[in-house]
Design a protein that fits this description.
five-stranded parallel beta sheet; 6 helices; binds iron/sulfur cluster; two-stranded antiparallel sheet
């Protein structure tokens, strides 16, 4: 015990070094996303997160978007409590049989225009849970998907990049139509 205490005084912490608090890349990406949302929608982008059966690893990364480091709300991106207020549904996990109906009903409750973003490898095709008796499959097996962000789990930066690409694509389509 004494040896352990002594070691802990000199051992480096196991936790990763926190990123610097003035990461310009986050600000640049989130600013571009907020600006594109205002151009496309005339207001902030509202996101509803749905866990369709994930291991919660993807949720931790999505929640990080709201932590003190990323704090995306300052750039005009909001997570909302109801699909009725949402523009984007971010869906994680393989879709489990128990969550299938809830996911369908959430999609129907979201007003048009709406986009569905499947977040994480499980959301593509069930990932490491594919083939389980409890799993229907990826998100596209239940509702239409506009964008897939791969990773297990994807990083918050990958999610910001994905959302920006989605809105830019929608913006270009609106201009040309
Ligand atoms: S992609 Fe990875 S982190 Fe996300 S739900 Fe699947 S296993 Fe979990």
């Amino acid at each position: 015990m004494r040896k352990l205490l002594f070691q802990s005084l000199f051992r480096r912490p196991f936790t990763e070094q926190a990123p610097s608090s003035d990461d310009a890349a986050v600000a640049e990406l989130a600013t571009a996303l907020g600006r594109t949302a205002r151009r496309r929608l005339g207001r902030s982008l509202s996101i509803r997160e749905i866990d369709a059966g994930s291991c919660n690893g993807c949720e931790l990364e999505i929640h990080a978007l709201n932590n003190a480091y990323y704090d995306v709300e300052r750039f005009g991106l909001r997570f909302v409590a109801s699909p009725r207020h949402a523009d984007v549904l971010m869906v994680t996990g393989p879709v489990t049989r128990n969550m299938r109906e809830a996911l369908e009903r959430t999609w129907h409750a979201t007003p048009d225009p709406k986009w569905v973003v499947a977040v994480g490898d499980c959301a593509r095709d069930g990932g490491c849970f594919a083939g389980s008796y409890a799993v229907v499959g990826g998100v596209s097996a239940v509702i239409p998907v506009d964008l897939h962000i791969s990773g297990c789990p994807p990083t918050p930066m990958a999610m910001l990049r994905g959302l920006l690409a989605l809105l830019e694509r929608a913006d270009t389509a609106a201009v040309t139509s």
